[in-house]
Design brief:
Order of helices and strands of chain B: EHEEEEEEEEEEEEEEEEEEEEEEEEEEEE
Number of domains of chain A: 2
Structural class of chain A: alpha/beta
Shape of chain B: globular
Helix content of chain B: under 10%
Shape of chain A: elongated
Number of helices of chain A: 13
CATH class of the largest domain in chain A: Alpha Beta
CATH architecture of the largest domain in chain A: 3-Layer(aba) Sandwich
Oligomer: heterodimer
Strand content of chain A: 15-25%
CATH superfamily of the largest domain in chain A: Class I glutamine amidotransferase (GATase) domain
CATH class of chain B: Mainly Beta
């Protein structure tokens, strides 16, 4: 009986561990049949020609019940809808922010409305822009192409998005919009090879928007113009046998996949529950071998390293300590490599960058050598609070922007006290495949906690052989962590070792 | 054959579309926005209707299938010669050199004719079923016969008519087109799609969907084999990028369940349109203007004095012919079309 109960607990824990990922999958189309979509257009004021009728037909063909209203309709019209679709024919000023707090997923190609929804900042040309053949003739050719920026999101996987060019719209100069999402956003595809010019980007529910608020439901921004839905690329007939063409002409597939993602159920809200987290990590730890790489007998930070190792062992992990000068072969047979903030970047050299097991770096300055980010120090990665090495003051808070992700430990969006005392905090600006969990306060581009899933495209085209994560854990003594800081540490370890 | 209406000097070879703009005034241009107008109406004679047309390989004659006969008319609209076949002729196609192909419904046969003078060279049985159309790909030198009732398209050797392969294709097969590189396209009105056939093996290599298109029947292709033009029964013309199978333009046209289409580069001479699509069906001839390979616009519509039964275009000679079924009891007519002096769509 006891054994059976134990098995039941194990099963429940296992389900709890995999539950977020399982629920986050794209819903099958059959499950979406009959769901109501509110299509908001410009109505009689729409520019002509436009593709709103085509979009409505397409949505019906996918099985949705489509209710079309114009921009002046009250937000309450969305009551009962499973998805709000905002066409660019709707006047953004008329729309205002009426749907910003709608607890219903939104799929929009109304670029001028992005700031109203908090999807981007408010500054035209810097935060968002509409390229059209009249104002921007040359660029209206350039937007016929976009790059796959993220290859591991559910949307990306479902269309087989690759880190390469693809055709967005059919061959004539077209109208298309881009936006620069906030740190909680995920750039799926970008124009001009720049992640600040996102062609398609998303926010998970509870992800922090560009205006600092948390997304009340999923949000998708797509590059379309008012009259080019019918020009979203696709390939048919014998040409569809070509793998190259199939991965080139994916505009319509991407539209459908993004739509499907928007209306699919998001993962359940993780709750901040240190006891449950502790139970989960203790469930996972036995049998897992962790290589902790530190500056052995290094003096500074040694106490912190010892505390981390002790903590990991107390959870049930088998921990081996390696010196920074030890060969990478120490990682053989390990389940996780953790690189301590006491390691010298110079001495560690390029070790562990290609280790085939998950890796957690507590040292942000290794972000270039580990392919987490670009190569320019203080632009791609840097630090706060290091005497003589940083212009920025010591810090002990983090801003949670990816609350939806298990790495956030159930902490709510916004500021969280990470350590009791201000100190050194490192940051990096990862590529779009990374999920950003926390930034430094007031620095949306300085990401303190993030993780790359296995198979991600990292800097320099490096493909992550296993999960990679950064946690800015430079030299604080482990005991200085707040309970929230401890939860973040455990959550990041738990996520990283899972793949 | 009698001439119903005729221009002052008749129709000179190679000048119908490009050179007869001046005649428009003489013949009385209508208020149509079409870039073409009727220059000459030629009664076919008797009570027979024209089922198929082919422009002569050397641009000297147009050939009309009327019942069991093939009649040729010269560039003055005068009946030149007639050949009687054993069965109703359902399709005509101009071949290479002086060759003309005709298909006869019952008994199902392909007839290969010479045109100097018009005579039967040989004929072969078509075991795949009653033919509904014949198409010659002049670039690839490939000959195809479609059989709607036999649900097939047969490829034949152009000189002898020897059967080279058969593709089984259920559906409502209509007009055919080819890219000159071994790919045949067939409109399938039952599936609202284009069937794509690999001509080498005569196997169906795919289907191209036609979004928003119902009961397609007309099909043409540019000579470079990059664009397909499809006429749909529900009043749309689609322009398809053949490289991708992607429809990127949809324009309104007349509704008809029997559309016939043709395409020509520079149909009005080198300084005129880059390309033109001619869509005949119902009682109208619609035109679509090609500005660039990715840019098209409605070119205008010409009301015709009867229901279209056949269309032929000889782009090299600048000749456009339409056969119409006249009122009951009267025979069919051939219409020679030329550039309108109105130039409304230019």
């Amino acid at each position: 009986m006891t054994r059976l109960r134990a098995m039941g607990v194990c099963a429940a824990l296992a389900i709890a561990l995999v539950w977020p990922a399982a629920r986050a999958a794209l819903a099958p189309w059959t499950a979406l049949k009959g769901k109501t979509v509110l299509l908001v257009t410009g109505g009689a004021d729409s520019p002509r020609p436009n593709d709103d009728a085509r979009v409505a037909r397409h949505l019906r063909k996918l099985g949705f019940v489509v209710r079309t209203v114009d921009a002046s309709a009250p937000a309450s019209d969305a009551d009962g809808a499973s998805l709000i679709v905002l066409s660019s024919t709707a006047d953004a000023h008329e729309l205002g922010d009426k749907y910003a707090q709608a607890p219903v997923p939104i799929f929009t190609w109304n670029t001028y409305d992005y700031p109203n929804l908090g999807l981007t900042g408010p500054v035209l040309h810097r935060d968002y822009e509409v390229i059209d053949p009249i104002q921007h003739y040359a660029d209206s050719f350039a937007v016929l192409y976009a790059y796959g920026a993220n290859i591991t999101s559910e949307i990306s996987r479902s269309v087989g998005l690759k880190p390469q060019l693809f055709g967005t719209l059919y061959l004539e100069p077209q109208t298309a919009g881009w936006g620069r999402p906030g740190p909680g956003g995920t750039v799926i595809a970008d124009f001009f090879g720049s992640r600040t010019h996102a062609a398609v980007f998303t926010y998970e529910r509870d992800a922090t928007l560009a205006d600092g608020r948390a997304a009340p439901a999923r949000r998708v921004a797509f590059y379309l113009g008012s009259d080019d839905f019918h020009l979203l690329t696709a390939v048919h007939g014998p040409a569809a046998r070509s793998a190259h063409l199939r991965s080139w002409a994916i505009g319509l597939k991407l539209f459908d996949a993004a739509l499907r993602w928007a209306i699919s159920s998001p993962p359940p809200d993780p709750a901040y529950d240190p006891a449950a987290l502790d139970a989960r990590i203790r469930h996972v730890a036995p049998g897992k071998r962790v290589l902790f790489v530190e500056r052995v007998h290094g003096g500074e930070g040694h106490r912190s390293d010892a505390a981390i190792v002790a903590h990991l062992r107390s959870l049930g992990f088998t921990v081996r300590v390696a010196d920074q000068m030890d060969p990478q072969s120490r990682a053989r047979g390990m389940s996780l490599v953790i690189i301590s903030g006491t390691c010298s970047k110079w001495k560690l050299a390029n070790k562990y960058d290609d280790v085939r097991v998950p890796l957690l770096s507590l040292e942000g300055l290794l972000s270039d050598s580990l392919h987490f980010t670009g190569r320019e120090r203080y632009r791609d990665y840097g630090e706060h609070g290091e005497l003589l090495e940083s212009d920025d003051p010591p810090e002990n808070y983090l801003d949670i922007v990816g609350a939806w992700n298990p790495m956030a430990g159930g902490l709510k969006p916004g500021l969280v006290k990470f350590t009791h005392h201000p100190g050194v905090l490192k940051w990096a600006w990862p590529l779009p495949d990374a999920t950003v969990i926390a930034t430094l306060p007031g620095e949306p581009r300085e990401d303190a906690i993030f993780g790359y899933p296995k198979g991600s495209r990292m800097a320099g085209g490096f493909i992550a052989p296993a999960r990679r994560a950064l946690l800015p854990f430079d030299n604080p003594t482990f005991d200085d962590l707040t309970p929230q800081g401890r939860a973040l540490f455990d959550s990041v370890v738990l996520w990283t070792i899972g793949g | 054959m009698s001439r119903v209406r005729r221009g002052a000097t008749g129709i000179r070879r190679g000048a119908v579309l490009a050179g007869l703009a001046a005649l428009a005034g003489v013949l009385g241009a209508s208020a149509s926005t079409s870039p073409v107008q009727v220059l000459q109406r030629i009664a076919v004679g008797g009570t027979g209707q024209v089922r198929a047309l082919a422009a002569g390989p050397q641009a000297k004659h147009v050939y009309a299938a009327v019942g069991e006969e093939i009649r040729s008319f010269d560039d003055l609209g005068k009946a030149a010669s007639t050949v009687k076949l054993r069965g109703v002729v359902t399709g005509l196609a101009a071949g290479a050199g002086d060759t003309l192909y005709a298909v006869v419904r019952a008994p199902a046969r392909l007839v290969i004719l010479g045109v100097r003078p018009l005579h039967v060279v040989t004929s072969v049985a078509l075991p795949a079923g009653a033919p509904s159309g014949v198409f010659f790909d002049s670039i690839a030198n490939q000959l195809f016969v479609a059989s709607r009732s036999g649900h097939s398209v047969t490829r034949l050797e152009p000189k002898t008519g020897r059967r080279l392969g058969v593709a089984r294709m259920p559906g409502m097969l209509a007009q055919m087109a080819a890219n000159g590189r071994g790919t045949l396209y067939v409109v399938n009105g039952a599936r609202d799609s284009l069937d794509v056939v690999s001509a080498d093996k005569m196997t169906l290599s795919g289907q191209i969907p036609l979004p928003g298109c119902r009961a397609p029947s007309g099909l043409a292709m540019d000579p470079l084999g990059r664009r397909l033009f499809v006429g749909c029964g529900n009043g749309h013309a689609l322009i398809v990028d053949a490289d991708l199978g992607f429809t990127f333009v949809k324009l309104p046209i007349q509704q008809s369940d029997a559309l016939q289409m043709a395409f020509a580069f520079h149909p009005f001479g080198p300084s005129g349109w880059k390309g033109g699509v001619f869509i005949a069906g119902g009682e109208a001839l619609h035109t679509i203007r090609m500005y660039a390979f990715v840019h098209y616009a409605n070119g205008g519509k010409l009301a015709l004095p009867g229901t279209v039964s056949a269309l032929a275009l000889n782009p090299a000679a600048g000749e456009l012919w339409v056969a119409i079924a006249s009122a009951a009891g009267a025979g069919g007519e051939l219409l020679a079309l030329g550039q309108s002096g109105m130039g409304g769509a230019r």
